[in-house]
Amino acid sequence: MNKVEICGVNTSRLPVLKNKEMRVLFKAMQAGDTQARGKLVQGNLRLVLSVIQRFNNRGEYVDDLFQVGCIGLIKAIDNFDLGQNVKFSTYAVPMIIGEIRRYLRDNTPIRVSRSLRDIAYKVLQIRDVLANKFSREPSIGEIASELNLKREEIIFALDAIQEPVSLFEPIYHDGGDPIFVMDQVSDEKNLDDRWLEILAVKEALGRLTEREKLILTMRFYKGKTQMEVADEIGISQAQVSRLEKAALGHLRKHVQ
User: Fold this and answer.
1) What is the pLDDT of residue 122?
2) Is the pLDDT assigned to residue 2 strictly greater than 70?
3) pLDDT higher than threshold 70 for residue 185
4) Contacts for 25 with CB less than 8 Å, ≥ 6 apart
5) Radius of gyration over alpha carbons of the chain, in Å?
6) Could you give the residue ranges of the DSSP H alpha helices within 162-225?
């Protein structure tokens, strides 16, 4: 993020326009002067640079973010109203940020359907409108009512545009070894206690008779009923029930 040259632009030599100069240029641009528009863009590129500093931990190329930020800047210039009592930077910064955020959402490694992204964008826009209206963060129910959508659709759409987090993302660092996301993710298939249980069950199964093993395999691995097992191995359903009960009793005894 400390590059001097971005997209062929020497950022150390970028001009800075004063408010009076900008007002003159805006009036000239709105009168049809295309050169004035170019000067406004050139004179506000430092504003784009200041905004993209906020996204320096996303792993994106600075040149790409700068170009996207310039699109937001141009939109702000084309839509700025001199009649409003507000500084141009106050108006432009949210538009530049919005353009960069849209770019980051659309270029996430996880592919999200266009319809789902559209719903998410509408939700974000309505959320901002309602937040200004209520002077607080609106609830999912209020947003759903405004957009005439189900709460589940809104939650699903917002979840879909969340950026994936690397397992090696540090979440805590106190000067020693950092704690990463993967350190907080449990793997139930590889817990020490589970491995011990698996070994105990295997050892217990080895102590059963072949018929007991066959019955348990057909009942609990193949999902057959006691009647189906009885028909297949040629004994009565009552015998299957008795053998199954005895086999499970042996398993519990050896596992415990």
Assistant:
1) 87
2) no
3) no
4) 17, 36, 39, 40, 43
5) 32
6) 181-184, 192-205, 210-216
Paired sense of beta strands 9-10 and 170-172, if any: unpaired
Between CA 120 and CA 114 the distance in angstroms is 10
CA distance 5 to 23: 28
Amino acid, single-letter form, for residue 51 = V
Burial 112-137 (b: 16+ CB within 10 A, else e): beeebbebbbbbbebbeebeeeeeee
Contact yes or no for 154/140 (Cβ under 8 A) = yes
| Residue 74: per-residue pLDDT | 92
221, 229 Cβ separation under 8 angstroms: no
Contact status, residue 139 vs residue 147, Cβ threshold 8 Å: no
- Whether pTM > 0.85 for this model: the answer is no
Q: How many CA atoms lie within 13 A of 253 on its CB side?
A: 8
Instruction: Look up tokens 């049809």; give the residue.
Output: 32
